Amino acid sequence: MTESRQGSLLVLRILSALILLAIAGIHLFLIFDGVGGLLGVMFVLNGIAGVVLAVAILITRGALLRIVAILSLLFVLASLAAILLALTVGLFGITEVWSFTLVPETVIVEAIGVVVLAITCGAVFRRGRAVGATA
Fold first, then answer.
1. Rounded to whole angstroms, how far apart are CA atoms 117 and 72?
2. How far from chain centre, in Å, is Cα 128?
3. pLDDT tens digits, residue range 9-26?
4. What SS3 class is residue 19?
5. What are the angstrom distances between the C-alpha of 24 and each of 6, 30, 77, 102?
6. 123 DSSP 8-state letter
7. Where are the alpha helices (DSSP H) in the chain?
8. What is the pTM (predicted TM-score) of this model?
9. What are the φ and ψ backbone dihedral angles of 3, each rounded to 5 degrees?
10. What is the rounded end-to-end Cα distance, in angstroms, of the chain?
C-alpha cells in the first residue's frame, strides 16, 4: 500500500475516533446535566461504548480493525436511529423534543459520524483486499 493511502486511512481513523468521542461526550454530558432513569443508564452505556470504540479504532490492526470499524458504524447508526425514533414515535416510552439540550447538535454529529465511519469502513476493507492481493 502506498504511503498516501496509509496516511489517508490514519486520518480517517482519527476522524472516526473524534466522532465517537464526541458522541460519547455528548451522552456523558447529559448525564451530568441531570438526565436519569432508563435514559440515563442508556446514556452511560452509550458513553462507555463510544470511548471504547474510539480507542479500539486507533489501536487495532488487520482483521480486528475491520470488525471495530463495522461495530463503530453500527454504533453510530443505532445511536442516530434511537434519537430519531425518540423524536418521532418514541422509544422505550421516551419521547424527545428538538428543544431539549443538545438534541440538534447530537443529530448533526451522529449524521456526520455515519458518513465518516462509512468512508472509514470502505477504506479499511479496501486496504484489507489490497493487502490480501499482494500477499
1. 7
2. 21
3. 999 999 999 999 999 999
4. helix
5. 27, 10, 14, 13
6. H
7. 3-32, 37-59, 62-88, 103-134
8. 0.87
9. -65, -35
10. 11
Residue 78 C-alpha cell reads as 443505532
Cα–Cα distance for residue pair 91/89, rounded to 1 Å: 7
Query: By C-alpha distance, which of 87, 74, 82, 78 is closest to 121?
Result: 74
133 has pLDDT over 60: no
> Is residue 99 within 8 Å of residue 44, measured between CB atoms?
no
The three grid cell numbers given for residue 82, joined into one nine-digit string:
434511537
b/e sequence 109-123, b meaning 16+ C-beta within 10 Å: bbeebbebbeebbeb
Backbone angles phi, psi at 101, to 5 degrees: -50, 125
